[in-house]
Specification:
With 216 residues, the protein is an all-alpha fold. The chain has one domain. The protein contains 7 helices and no strands. It is rod-shaped and about 85 Å long.
Length: 216
């Protein structure tokens, strides 16, 4: 199909094919950016949980390098939420601080996915609209008795391309939306697991008694 034919079809659909091209570009941008971001985040979670199993105190040089490497990831921010925790604070208090940090991070994980969700919903509707506009144009030639039937048939076939494009964009977006949503759920589970691991490995120190209360 030549570019001139594509422009002709786009114009016949009332310009909706241009809008669907824009929707496809937006969807691909979100898919590529979120896929890279969430895969890196998921790998960071795996690395940090393995490091915590091997080094509960998180003081080994290799662990410190790993923490710096993934400093921009939510897992590290959850870990750092205990940095200023007093040694004698209770497990319940520490758990509350870790949970607070985790709750700040979770809403940021599915950022931009609403855009992909909107594209999935809008693309088929826009394709249907383009098809209706194209069919109006196709039926407008019925006054031509000799060539009207063939022109209507060809016009309907061209108009249906808008619906096909809308469905294609929606199907592509739906596949990746579900895949990205699964990645988000995995990362949330990683953060919850990391929270439990931190609390299980934490050993709060009992508060020291004042010197005048110590046994003689």
């Amino acid at each position: 199909m030549t570019p001139s034919k594509l422009f002709e079809l786009a114009n016949a659909s009332g310009g909706t094919l241009y809008l669907m091209g824009l929707l496809l570009l937006i969807a691909l941008t979100v898919i590529i950016e979120r896929s890279r971001h969430l895969l890196n985040m998921q790998q960071a979670g795996v690395d940090l949980m393995n490091a915590l199993r091997e080094d509960p105190a998180l003081q080994a040089p290799a662990t410190q390098v790993l923490l710096k490497k993934h400093a921009d990831q939510p897992h590290v921010r959850v870990i750092r939420s205990l940095d200023n925790e007093p040694a004698d604070s209770s497990t319940e208090t520490a758990a509350g601080h870790v949970e607070e940090s985790l709750m700040h991070e979770v809403p940021l994980l599915d950022r931009s996915l609403w855009v992909l969700d909107t594209v999935i919903t809008l693309a088929p509707l826009l394709g249907l609209f383009g098809t209706i506009v194209g069919m109006f144009r196709a039926f407008s030639v019925l006054d031509d008795v000799q060539n009207g039937a063939s022109q209507v048939t060809g016009g309907i076939a061209e108009a249906l391309i808008a619906t096909a494009c809308g469905l294609f964009i929606a199907m592509l977006g739906l596949i990746f939306f579900n895949w990205l949503s699964t990645r988000v759920r995995v990362i949330v589970h990683q953060l919850e697991t990391l929270k439990i691991m931190l609390l299980n490995r934490r050993r709060p120190q009992p508060a020291q008694q004042p010197s005048h209360l110590k046994a003689v």
